[in-house]
Amino acid sequence: MTGAGETTEVPAQSEVTGYAPAELDRTTRLELYRKMVALRLFEQRAYDLFLQNLVKGTSHLSLGQEAVAAGFGQAMRADDYTFCTYRGHAHTLVRGASMTGVMAELLGRSNGILGGKGGSMHLTSVEHYAMGSYAIVGAHMPIAAGAAWSAMERDSGQVAVCFFGDGTTNIGAFHEALNLAVVWKLPVVFVCENNLYMEYTPIGSVTAVPSPAADRASAYGLERVLVDGNDPDELYGCASRFLERARDGDGPALIEALTYRKGGHSRADPGKYRPDDEVERWMARDPIDLYRGRLLELGFGAPELDEIDSGELAAVDRATQEAKDGQAPDVGAIETQVFADGGNAWRN
After folding, report:
1. Which residue in 29, 57, 161, 165 is deepest, having the highest Cβ count within 10 Å?
2. How does pLDDT run across 172-214, given as a tens digit for each residue?
3. Is the pTM of this model over 0.85?
């Protein structure tokens, strides 16, 4: 158990494995690799543009956490719902949102997926069932439960997947949403991306249990699920299993994926509060480096993987240029899409 001032003990690897499928086809493995590379390169470019003062407002990057988005994105059905936090670039992109549209949104341009009005922290692409990035911690969990209830009532077979950080596990909405999801047996999968820090505070210093999500699952009659958040095979297998259960009417799941961000909480945070040896250990477990090594051991050719790398870099370059070429939004757009009728005329 942890107490005030203590940090979370990272479970042994044997505790967070066991979900990877016995066999994965070649196409799936390459797609998992491609997704992670695309997300990494996109986020690195977003960081570069932020330093050039081109990204409007702050941004919260998922560098180092790409395997979670890739694994679940690969396993989800095209019409499953995604709900995520303000660290949501990756989760939005893996659902099929335009790379140019997301990059332009970060730059506040009119060709952004929200016309430049949402920015980094509010990415949404309803046509791809990416139902929003939420800046209020935990606010999207009851909403995801509501989407799952809608899917159940319509018998659509859809599953809502709700991603959140470790800090959310100490928010009231976390417990309310879990309780209701279990009581109503909703098709929703809650995924805690535990990167060990709630902004600047070690999650272990303010939480009564070592694993903030997994150790609380039993309180709601759910299976304890702790998975390696840097292993896309484990995440894909875990996602496939619990998505299928939810789709078959067996109710919700609570998954805790252990991972680590490469940088600070946001671009304003250098992350100096993290112990050097901890950072070093996690940097050695970079999900893309590890997965590339695994693919090479399985007989995939380095030229084939290099081609994916160069192809995704070219895609990021195109998206960057197209985003930069976008126009600033017309000032009149600020009064549109505010209410259901698209304007504020009702006030008058």
Report:
1. 161
2. 999 999 999 999 999 999 999 999 999 889 999 999 999 999 9
3. yes
CB 180, CB 192: distance < 8 Å:
no
Instruction: State the DSSP H helix or E strand holding residue 71, giving kind and residue range, or none if neither.
Output: helix 66-75
Give the CA count within 13 Å in the CB-facing half-sphere of 106: 35
Helix locations, 201-301, DSSP H: 232-247, 276-283, 287-297
For the chain, the structural domain boundaries read 13-321
Percent of the chain with pLDDT over 70: 93
Task: List b or e across 184-216, with b for residues whose CB sees 16 or more CB atoms inside 10 angstroms.
Answer: eebbbbbbbbbbbbbeeebbbebbeebbbbbbb
CB 75 within 8 A of CB 240: yes
Contact of 284 with 89, CB cutoff 8 Å: no
Beta strands in 2-123 (DSSP E): 81-85
Tell which CATH architecture fits domain 13-321: 3-Layer(aba) Sandwich (3.40)
> How far, CA to CA in Å, does 239 sit from each of 25, 230, 234?
16, 14, 8
Q: Give me 223's structure tokens.
A: 């299976």
Residues 81 and 295: their CA atoms lie apart, in Å, by 30
Cross-strand partners of 85 = 134
Is residue 10 over pLDDT 90? no
Token pair 């070429």 is at which residue? Answer: 325
- For residue 6, count CB atoms less than 10 angstroms from its CB and return exposed for 0-12, middle for 13-18, buried for 19 or more: middle
Between the alpha carbon of residue 49 and those of residues 55, 162, 345, the distances in Å are 6, 28, 37
DSSP conformation class of 100: H
| 53-99 residue pLDDT tens | 999 788 889 999 999 999 999 999 999 999 999 999 999 999 999 99
DSSP secondary structure letter of residue 297? H
Segment 288-295 shows an average pLDDT of 98
